[in-house]
Amino acid sequence: MKAYLDTSVILRKLLGQPGAIKEWGRWDEGYTSEITRLESLRTLDRLRLEGKLKDEEVAEKMRLLGVVLESTGTIAINEAVLKAASQSFPTIIGSLDAIHLASALLCEQKIKGKLIVLTHDVRLGIAAQAMGFQTRGLAYSS
Q1: How far is 137 from 93, CA to CA, in rounded Å?
Q2: By C-alpha distance, which of 38, 35, 44, 42 is closest to 124?
C-alpha cells in the first residue's frame, strides 16, 4: 500500500490518542506534505504552553516526529502545490487541507500509482473521497 499521511494521523499516533489508525506502519511507501512538520510542531508547542505536555514529553514527541518524517517521502510546498491547492475542490476544504490534498494529487502523478489517504480530518477525508481517493481513518472510510 502507498499511503499519504496527513497531520491528524501522525499526531493522533504520537500523542497516544484513542482511535489511532489501524493501518499505522502497514504501508510500503508513505508520503506527507512539508506542511506536516509545521502543523505538528505548532500543535506540540501549543500543548506545552497549555500545560498539557511537559518539556521532556515534548522533546520525546519531537524525536518521534522526526523518525516518522524521515521515514516518509516529503512533498515540498512549491508553486505546483500552491497552484493546485488554490483551485476549486468538489467539497468545502480549508487552506491547509487543500495543501494536503494537492500534495497527494501531485504525489500520485509523480509516483505513477494510487495513494490511500490516511486522515482523521473529516473535511479532508470527504474531499479526498470526492476526488477519487480511498481513505482510511474515518468511521465511514471508503
Answers
A1: 17
A2: 35
CATH number at residue 115: 3.40.50.1010
Question: What is the arithmetic mean of pLDDT over 36-46?
Answer: 97
Answer yes or no: are the C-beta atoms of 128 and 119 closer than 8 Å. Answer: yes
- The DSSP result for 103-117, as a single string, is HHHHHHHHHTS--EE
| CA-based max dimension of the chain | 44
Q: Give the domain range for residue 120.
A: 2-136
Identify the weakest region by mean pLDDT among 9-13, 18-22, 87-91: 18-22
Structure-block grid coordinates of residue 125 = 477525508
Inter-residue contact 117 to 4 (CB < 8 Å): yes
The answer to whether 48 and 55 are in contact (CB under 8 A) is yes
Q: Output the pTM of the full model.
A: 0.93
Report how many domains make up the chain: 1
